[in-house]
Amino acid sequence: MPRTFRAMLAIAVVIGGFALSGAEAEPTSAAAALCQRALAAFRAGPVNFEESKTAILPSGRPVLDRVVTLAATCRHSVVEVTGHTDSSGDEAENRRLSLARATAVADYLVRRGIPRHRIVVAGVGSSEPIADNARRYGRQLNRRIEIALLPLREPGISP
Fold it and tell me: Please, which residues have CB within 8 angstroms of residue 116's CB and are 6 or more apart in sequence?
């Protein structure tokens, strides 16, 4: 059985003026408050990948399904997906791998109904560590996907 590495899914949420239904032309303060409460209640979990692979393991799907639910509720938002790696190996390969993993997450979100134009994908390799790469546990924490749900500048305008 291949070794797997856990990539922690950190949810960074920035709240803005969100609308809860596609029928609303402009975000309302009541809709924003409902969306804000839903986002505050959300608890992240791990999204796993096989070593040097981009396929999301089944254990990460429930976490991403909750992201889909939030993004579908907060329709005037953009989902920003950023892939990270540890510092092992070549940095050019780490950037490619982090982008490929972020793209795999974005593809999952699209298959679940989030429009592609609402998703921004980036891969930053090992340039933004959150832990010490000298230790196995630190490297494990640095192999992660971060998802931010951000307001669109204007409703109906893609990022």
Answer: 106, 110
Residue that is written with structure tokens 């596609």 in the block = 22
What is the rounded CA–CA span in Å between residue 50 and residue 70?
Answer: 27
**What architecture is domain 4-151?**
2-Layer Sandwich (3.30)
- C-alpha 101/C-alpha 84 separation (Å) is 9
Could you tell me which residue, 156 or 17, shows the higher pLDDT? Answer: 156
Instruction: Express each pLDDT in 117-146 by its tens digit.
Output: 999 999 999 999 999 999 999 988 888 888
Cα–Cα distances in angstroms (integers) from residue 25 to residues 7, 10, 76, 157, in the given order: 37, 31, 10, 12
The pair of three-digit structure tokens given for residue 96, joined into one six-digit string: 């490619």
Domain boundaries, the chain: 4-151
Pairing verdict, β 77-83 and 46-50: unpaired
Percentage of the chain with pLDDT > 70?
70
DSSP string for 12-52: EE------SSTT-SS--HHHHHHHHHHHHH----EEEEETT
